[in-house]
Amino acid sequence: MDKRFQVFVSSTYADLEQERRSVIQTLMEMDCIPAGMELFPASDDDQWQFIKKVIDDCDYYILILGGRYGSTNVEGIGYTEMEFDYAKSIGLKILSFVHENPSSIPVAKSELDASLREKFEAFRTKVKADRLVKFWSSEKELPGLVAFSLMKTIKAYPAIGWVRADKVTSESSLIEINSLQKENSALKKQIESANSSLYNKSLNLAGFDETFDLKYSYTIKRQYATDTISENAKMTWQQIFGAIAPELISHPSDGKVESMIGRVAYKTNNTGEKVVKLDNDCFQTVKVQLIALGLVTVDYRQTTQGGMGVFWSLTDKGSSFMAAVRTVKSAKKENARAEGD
Fold this sequence. Notes:
By secondary structure, this protein is an alpha/beta fold.
């Protein structure tokens, strides 16, 4: 279904009239719906309430900052800054386009009042602290900057948008579709659970209370030599999973999980901290076992730096089992149960 996104364009007006016109033209060419207050100056509280409603209806917010702070309310806060703060407070994605050198702007388009100049600089600093900021020096640059930045933002953070009323499915149909989707999802989970149960039975997997020997090594530096110590730690599968499960919430890398298991194994026999090397064959067995038990997934995917790596995650079953083995149970209920017995 085709959607159009409503974009609020915020700026001072008199000094950026041409810039606003260029940006609004760009938004219209992108099939967006521009919204702004150039025809309705925010001069009183009633008008400000109206502006907030318009911002509430928008999908994205664009700020163009030149060399002026603009008109202020009775408290001395600029309406452009108020719009910016309000958009941020309701979670709108904000794209800010800041003039890179305000001192080069003609005097007629600059803030001459000392107090307003100070507020302008403070506001400019606040805006620059945001992540989605681009800098411009001429009106001709803005259309390209706005189009490129908005397209990237829409792709990365798709909003609700607007559609024609005659293209919208009726409310009753949506309710029925939603109900069927929930039912379909529940059936899929039942099938997956049944398949997993049959799969586990065919593999004859070790139970959670059965033990596994974790082999690891570490070094001890002595006066004239370095000794390598090899040890075994006998742990149940429940203990192994319970020890690392909370860390899997943050999707750690394969290497980090290996280090975690090594430290857990070391601490079953020792105190203090050592750089521990877990036997690779043991680590691979633990990995396959936890995958087969349906507790974790191990995926090869892109890193935050753009490369590729192997990362661990909890499954729904893993999250439920983690809650069962790692949460603190109520002593009151246990005592009451014991007294009842």
